[in-house]
Amino acid sequence: MDKFKVIEIKESVFEDNERQANLLREKLEKENVFLLNLMSSPGSGKTTTVLRTIEALKDEMRIGVLEADIDSDVDAHAVVQTGVEVIQLHTGGMCHLDADMTKQGLLELGTKEIDFAILENVGNLVCPAEFDTGASKNAMILSVPEGDDKPLKYPLMFSMVNVLLINKIDTIDYFDFDLDAVKKRAKKLNPNIKIIPISAKTGEGINEWVDWIRTQVKK
Amino acid sequence: MHELGVIIEVVKKVESFAKKNRIVEIDTLVLQIGELSSMVPKYVEACYPAAVDGTLLQDTKLKIEILPCNAICKNCNKVFNLIEAQKKCPDCESEEWDLLGGNEFLIKEIIAC
What we know:
The complex is a heterodimer. Chain A is 36% helix and 22% strand. Chain A has helices spanning 15-30, 46-57, 74-80, 99-109, 150-153, 155-160, 179-189, 206-216, and strands at residues 5-12, 34-40, 63-69, 85-90, 116-120, 137-143, 163-167, 194-197. In chain A, helix 2 packs across helix 8. The N and C termini of chain A lie far apart (63 Å). By secondary structure, chain B is an alpha+beta fold.
C-alpha cells in the first residue's frame, strides 16, 4: 500500500461542460444565431408549441430545430412536415443534452443557414436544468394538468429559465390549477422570469411568445 | 437517474488525468458530493461498477464524501444546515439566507501509483 499516494484532483465534474457551453454561446453570438433551449416534462406540449412557433415565424426568419430524445424520431417527423430543417439527436439513454451534443447538432444544421434554432430538450424537469447546453436563452413549459406545485418540486428548473410558458391554458377550468400561485412561486425563485400563459392548441398567447423571440433574433 | 451518464464522464476524466500523469494503477477514487447535488450517493455507488467496467478504473475502489449544505442567515449571521433546519434559520426563523455550499460534485483525489 505504501507505494500508493494521494493525488489531489479537485475538479468539478461539470466544469468541462460549462466551459464548452460558454464557448458555444460566444460562437452563436458572433454568428448571429439565437439558440433557444426548450425544456419541460414529457407530455406538456413541447412539440405542439414548437410547431406553432415555426408556423408563426417561418416566413420572417430561417429556423432550424434540434430534437433531442432518448430514442425514436416521432417528434422530428412531426416537425419535418413544416418544411424547416430538423436534426434528430439521440441521447442514447442519457436524460439530458450537454453542450457538446448541442454543438454537434448545430454544426449539422449549419449555423450559417439559420437565424433561430430551437433545441427541444429531453422531456424531464430535473437533469436538463443542471447541464448548460450553451443556448442563448432558456425557456420551459409547464402545462396546466401537471399542477401548480411544480415550482416547489423542481426549483432549479424554474430558477434558471428566462421564460416560463404555461401551456394548455384552455383547460384551466377543468383542473385545480392556481395560475397566480404558480406565478408567485416562480417569481420567488426567479424574479426576472417572464411568464406567458399559452395554448399551443388554440393559439392563445402565442403572439406574445413569438414577439419575445423576435426581440432576441438578430437577422 | 442520470448518475450513470455522469459517472462515465467522471471515469473518462480520471483516465485522461492518469494518462497525462503516467499513473498506471488507481487504488481508490474519492468523490465529493454536496447534500443538495442531484447526484444521489446510493445511485452513484450502484452504477459505478458498470461505469468502470473495462477501464483503467476497473479495480478501483470508490469512496464518497458528503459535503454539508450550510447556509448563513442574512438576519443574524448564524450558520446552519439547510436540510436539518428545513430552510429556516433555527435561531431567528428567518427564511433569508445565502447558501455556503452543498451543490458540489467534485473529483477530490485519487490514491494511485
